[in-house]
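Intended use. Records such as the Purine permease entry shown here are meant for training and evaluating sequence-to-structure methods. They are not intended to support clinical decisions.
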Amino acid sequence: MFSIGAVGLIFEVSSLFSNSISAVGLPIVPIMAVFFFNDKMNGIKGVSMALAVWGFVSYVYQYYVDGQKSDKKTLDEASS
């Protein structure tokens, strides 16, 4: 079901947005498994969720930095 939704996002919005949503959903699935299926939360799940969140935050931060650089470049070109 998730892959069908991802394909829909690619067709309707963009593959970049679909990838972002997939990265956000990655740590949510184990959390839901712990709550709904009474799955045990062990160290490996905790580390994998921390790495998934870290990866997503790094991705968003890099997008922000690239946006700041392009804004500065646009302002420099406009003032010359």
